Structures are given as C-alpha cells and as structure tokens.
Amino acid sequence: MDIRKFFERGTTREKRKKGRESSSGSDENDNHDKTTHVMPRSLHANIGQASHSPAKPVNISVADYSSPSTSQQTYDVNVDPEIIVDDGYHENDLGRYVGLATQLSTEKKRELLQNPWIPPRNYDFENIISEVQKTMAYAVLADEKADVAGKEQLSIGVRFYDESKRKIREEFVGFVELKAQNASAIAEAIDNFLFSSNLPTEDCVGFGFDGCSTMAGKEGGVQAILRKKYPRALYFHCSSHKVNLVVNDANAVPEIRNTVATVKDVITFFRESTTRRNYAPNLPRLCETRWSEKYKSIRKFSQHFPELVKSLETLSVEGNYATRKSAYQLHSAVTKPVFIVALQTIAKYSAVLEPVVNALQAKSIDMISVGEHIKHIKDILRNDREFPDRISNEMLQKARAVAMDLNIEISVPRLAHKQTHRSNPPSDNDNEYWRRSLIIPYIDSLISSLNIRFSQENTPAFALSKLHPLYMTKTSITDLHKNAESFQEFYNLDITGELDLWHNLWVKKALSDDQLRDIEVVDLFNEANIFYPAVRKALIILSTIPCTTATVERSFSTLRRVKTWLRSTMGEERLTGLCLMSVHRNYLKEDSEFIEKTVIDKFSANPRRLLLN
User: Fold this and answer.
1) What homologous superfamily does CATH list for 125-236+567-591?
2) What is the pTM of this model?
C-alpha cells in the first residue's frame, strides 16, 4: 500500500492550520477544553453517525493504546464535523482501515499512520521458525539476486516436515543484504541468520544451492565452509538448475545452438515493437533462467512457426529501414532446412522436459519423485536412441509438412571433403544425413548430461532412499543392512533392529510397482509412527532433503514488486518485513486478528505518550 499521500505536506497542511484557527475564533479562551481536528473523509461517516446536528460537537471515547500497560485510559475528545476537510485520504487503503477504529482520536490515528508497524526481521509468520525448532531435521535453501538499487540480496528459505500440519513445507523466511559476493561473506550471512533464528546446528541436514563455483566449490565454496560447522548438512545441487544445464549442454551441437539463438532473436524482434506485435501471436520471452517459460516459448514458437515466417516476409518489404533489414536477415535464417529440422527436434524433447520441470518446482516433491521423473526421461531418450531411424523419419516428416506450407525444400547442405565449421558425415540419403549430423548427437548429448548431473552419488542421503518400499522390496535383506551402514553412523541412527521388520512389512503387502510408485515419503510416516521410530526419523530426513531452490527463486518476483525505483532507498528490515507480508499474505487474510490485535500490540509496545490536545 502506498501511504505517502497521507503524509503530503504544503497545501494540505496549510488548510488544516487555517481550519483550526478559524474554528477557534474570538472565543478561543472560553473554549480551551474543545479540541478540533481535521479528518479525512474516510472518518466522516463514523463521526457523522454519532452527530445529531452538523454544528454540534461530537464526543468520542478514545482508548489510549500508547502505553505498554494492559490497562487502558479513555479520553473524551470533542470534534466539530463542520471543519472536516475532504483531502482525498479516503483513497488510501491503510487510511480506511485505521479510520474504522472509532475508539481512536484523529491525532491518534494520524500517529498510527505516520508510524506504521513493519514486521521485524525475526518476526515469525505462520510460526515457521518455531515449527522448524520443533522438527527433527531441516534444510536451508539460498540464492542471490541484485535489487533495483544494485544491492545483492540473499534469499533464504527452509524446508522441513510440519508435524502439526503433517506435510512437507518449503517457506521463504527473509532477505539478507550481502556486503560482498564471495563465498565467505555468503556463508557468514547464512550462518548468522540461522544463529539469530535459534535453529540447532545438529538438526540441519542439507543445503540447497545452485551449481556456481562460489556456492558449490568443494574447497572454498559456501557449502564447504558451512559444512565445517554443520557436519550433517550435505550440499544438494538444485534439480531444476541441473535440468536446465542438461538442455544448455545440448547447445554443444552447433545446429542446436544456432537454432536456439535464432528463436530468441525472432521473439525479441516481435516483442520490442508494438507495431510488430500486431503481425505475430503473443510469444513469451525465451529466458534462460525462467525454466517453465523457456519450454513454453519453444512450444509456442514451433506451433506458430509458419505464421511467424510469413510475418517476417511481410515486414522485410514494409516498415522502416531497421525493421526491413532485421526481418530480411531473420527470414533468411529461419527458412533454411537445417533450422526447420532442428526446431522440430528441439520442440519434441522440450515437450518431454516441460512437465518434468513444472513438477520439480512443487514444494512437496522429494528425492524419490525426482529420481522417478529423471528415470522417465532417460527411458524415453534411450528408446529413441535404440531406434534412430524411426525418430529421424518422424522429424523429417514434420519438417517437410512445415516446409511445404512455406514453399521450402528440405535438402541436404552442400558436402565437402574437408569441413571444420559444420557437420559433414557421409550419407547416402537425406534421412541418414540428418540422423547422423543432428538427431543422434542431440539425443546422445541429453543422455550423457542426465547421467552425469543426476548420477546417484555415494552419499548417506541417497542411501536413505532405499527405505522406500519401491526400492526396498527389490533388495535382499543383506544388501539392505549393508546399505544402512552408510547413513546410520552419519545421522546417528540405530535402525538395525527395525530394518528387518520394516522390510517384512512391505514384502507381505505384495503391492505392485505402480502402487508402490504412487506412495510418497510422507505417506510412510503413518506406517512407521508407533513401532518404527528410527525408521520414521530416517524418512523425515529423506523428505527434508532439498530438491530444488524454486521457493527462494519465487521470492525474487516479490522483491521486484516491493522494491521499485520509487522505493530504492528502502531499508533492509523494512524490505524483509514487506516481502514476508506479501509472500505469506494468505495467512494475513485468514487471521484477521493479526491486523486487529497483533499489529496494534506490537505498535503500542513502544513506550511513548501521545498528546490528545
């Protein structure tokens, strides 16, 4: 809410002063007990209802909340409705809320508006911090972004199992301004935040960051520095970042790299001018860091490709000089056979990755679900790699259908005996050329990157996944005990006595693989609630492992809305408080007492007296 209108000075202040002076008149000494106020129109209704005559002063009983004491003092304040000035303050939402408090005097309300309560940095919205303190394990998520003032803001979130709500929660808990962008400064900021929140170091089981060297460095990275103080907290690379890097790794194929760059240029060409937008459908910008938008942009570009080519052809002969020049160059690039075939190939596998990327951003997703999603992608790619003829025929059939609509012929580029700048494989026909030069290298690149970036690391955290019935029922009891050795000592768990019983429980259920695959880790807590306390704690640790940093990434959108160019000098405590109120706005809407009671109590805790004369 923008409450600056309420504090405008100059003409409005002079009107108030003149109103007070004129209301006193020559009888100022006789009416020394009479207090007059200039009120916004939002207060007029409350006062007018209590008034029987426009000229008769109104007695208002005011409760004094300025004292931190629990007792309240009341005062009678006389207000003359005739001097109420309509200064436009009713347009202010905060002014309306305060105006509804009929037990407060005008000056008291003005004081409230001039000193609005801002949640302190350590204010616990939705009891997040208190719930984290109760849980057996928690993980920390962090990522950084520069605000409009050029200050680096570190967004911090926590992931934990809420016993009261019986669900996995990932919550944003605040911003911290970074004094430097090196690993030691970031690690110190995270450590200070956890220390000020009184979160136990022994319960921290994971850190979720992106994969840059500053955060992920094994020697001097943030995760390496923090692990010295939090020995049980392992570093986990964000799965969404890893999928995005897998796609970027495919850009090593020159044809794919050039096609993606051309798609981005075409979208930018149409979006940068309102006149050009009329020639093309609304296309989302192809942004490398917004994962869902990236695949959505490629999908829509492929769907509207014939329309876009015709629009480029039209703009190449119409419009101003800059438009004609750019449109001609882009039209020449997108009508090449290699672009059309590469676009169909990228669109096919983007359609496979898009639902997985969206699923990875869910707060409740766990490592078991992540593994299943990645396995599903690998199975599709391996199947296509085993039958490349079928895939190449499918891609060429789609490419020829699009080319026919645009009067373009899909032909093989000129071959040379020595070629260093593009693919030049030997081939007997068109299908063989495109299969060897484009389709197979692209599929191989995706499979290789997925295997490298989503390899099952030999860590205690991944060993916990074997407690899930989907994997446990396929493992012998001997291998299960051997696997448990890697995490029992690390997490200080004594699970040996319960492991045989837990294994027999799910073997006797004799559930199918589809039924076991539908069981989430949280669903296992009820089964292990009474008789398997050690297994339950191990499962809680497994569910707490951070899969992505999507929660803190989403806070960047709030940061951009709250800290604008007009608010670029906003302090850190105010920024964090307003962002917390924005992110957790559902809590504020559900609990109206927060506005009516908590805010007033926090505000009145400031020991000061307000003059009501």
Assistant:
1) ATPase, nucleotide binding domain (3.30.420.40)
2) 0.69
